Amino acid sequence: MKKRFDRPYFLCSLLSLVVLAISLVASARSGYAQALPAPLLQKGASPVDWWFVFKFNTKFFPGCLTTSKRACIFGGDVQDYPKGFGLQSISASSANPTLHNDNGCLGESTNDPIGATFDEIYNGEYSYVIWNDQFYDDPDLPACKGKTSCNAPWGHSKGVLAWNDQGEGLVMQVSTPNWPGSGSSDFPRKNGNTLGCITDNTGKPQNNVWVSQHFFALRLNKADVVTVLRALQRASVVTQAGAHPGSQSQIIRNGGPGDIQKLVSELGKLSDDDALLNEKLSTGVQIIAKPPSLHVPPWQMVSATLGGTPLTVATWLIGNGKIDDYKGGRPKCWDSTLGPSGAVTNSDTGTWLKKVFGLTGGPSPDRNHAKIGVSTPAKYAVFGDLNQEGALTEPCDVSQNTRGGMFFVVENKALSTSLGGMMNVDEALKLAFVSAARFSPVRTLVQPASQIESKSQHLKPVAVHHKKIRRRRR
Q1: 299-333 b/e with 16+ CB inside 10 Å = b?
Q2: Contact 351/45 with Cβ under 8 angstroms?
Q3: If DSSP codes are grouped into helix, strand and coil, which group holds residue 57?
Q4: I need a labelling partner for 82 at 20 to 30 A (CA). Which of 96, 139, 231, 448 fits?
């Protein structure tokens, strides 16, 4: 009897162990596949190497493209912004580098790139770092000294980096103040954490979707994550300082490989480095990080780093610090390690669906807070943290010259061509240099004769600095 019952019991136990082992292997494989946060175009879709989203302004593309019900899927309450809002967008990706319309309300569902990609992080178990120079006290960081934002020399930079236990993940650059402000549903945010659902530190609506904004996400391997963390240090981004390995908060969950945890623990400090970081990542995308102590005009720096490539850019161009169109050369505010800059031209309007909209800065629903650029001829698309503001001549320690920030350079002719078409590059180049300062108030064009040299003595224009007209020099 004993032998007759032992053998079936043994076989049954062995079969159970085999089934359990297969189940564990399948689970492990499934878990590994799911454990890599990557840029998504929508939830459930195959990951892409990169995507780019441009959110339109409120004047010409108000509200949402469809009548879908608005939702605050990452926290907060739907805001009825008094001046209106705009959550219509266009996007491109490594799978389809030509810009095309998105549907719905940007970031309010997992059917668009922002909602799908951020959902992986916010509702997952990944490690992450969030940085933003405009957190509006949620969280309240010592670096901002009681203000709702951190000024120079802190990095003028915003975004989120996430990675798995192996150190692989993604980075998402954003231009939106006050978003994102939490990387996990374990840490609900008082100010809200969904586009269109954001308030300031007093609970009043804080409309970061009034003007145009941009978003760029990129897949990273472990070496890339290390490089991006070094770039964050170099740019002196605003985030939690002293986040020791294993610690968790709304803006940092410090896990993964030990070398990554060490780099994360060193964030939240001002860099004393004065050299830019320039690296190529595994996808072929180039990352450039400017430290605050490198007092040079940002987009001229990018052009020089790309071998003097001419650029057309659209940024928050406003105020006395704005830099007008530049024909190229070596500005007075420069560094000996940089070669000459190519021409850098400001695009003041864009076109989509036959609508012409503004691409400069200002308190208007027809303005732009994105920081984007394209090369001429079409080759590169550039997504940055910094505006075309600062100075080309002394004093150099002004505006964005004195702030840190990062730029991602995608070498893709189709993307560069499509983005350049949206930015009205041809029109911008036609208008460049027609006026001595076409973005300046009329009063800055009226100068005493003693301040204006003969046109016959000028060949190259130097950009406007404060209220002085741009002069031309040999």
Answers
A1: bbbbbbbbebbbbbbbbbbbebbbbbbbbbbebeb
A2: no
A3: coil
A4: 139
pLDDT band at residue 3 under the 50/70/90 scheme: very low
Contact between 399 and 70 under an 8 Å Cβ cutoff? The reply is no
Quote the pTM value.
0.86
| Distance between CA atoms of residues 70 and 185, nearest Å | 19
Q: How far apart are CA 310 and CA 303, in angstroms?
A: 6
Half-sphere exposure of 395 (CA within 13 A, CB side): 6
In tens, the pLDDT along 410-464 reads 999 999 999 999 999 998 888 875 654 555 443 333 333 333 233 333 334 434 3
Bridge partners, residue 279, by sequence? 287
Predicted confidence at residue 437, as pLDDT, reads: 52
The pLDDT of 132-138, averaged and rounded, is: 97
**Which residues lie across from 212 on neighbouring strands?**
368
Give the separation between CA 79 and CA 63, rounded to whole angstroms: 12
Q: What span, in angstroms and rounded, lies between the C-alpha atoms of 81 and 89? A: 18
Residues in the chain: 474
Contact 437, 470 (CB under 8 A): yes
DSSP 368-399: B---EEEESSS-EEEEESS-SBS-SSS--SSG
* Straight-line distance from the first to the last Cα atom of the chain, in angstroms, rounded to the nearest whole number: 108
SS3 assignment for 426-473: HHHHHHCCCCCCCCCCHHHHCCCHHHCCCHHHCCEECCCECCECCCEE
Q: Do 391 and 401 form a contact (C-beta atoms < 8 A)?
A: yes
pLDDT tens readout for residues 224-276? 999 999 999 999 999 999 999 999 999 999 999 999 999 999 999 999 999 99
Q: At what angle do helices 258-265 and 222-235 cross, to 10 degrees?
A: 10
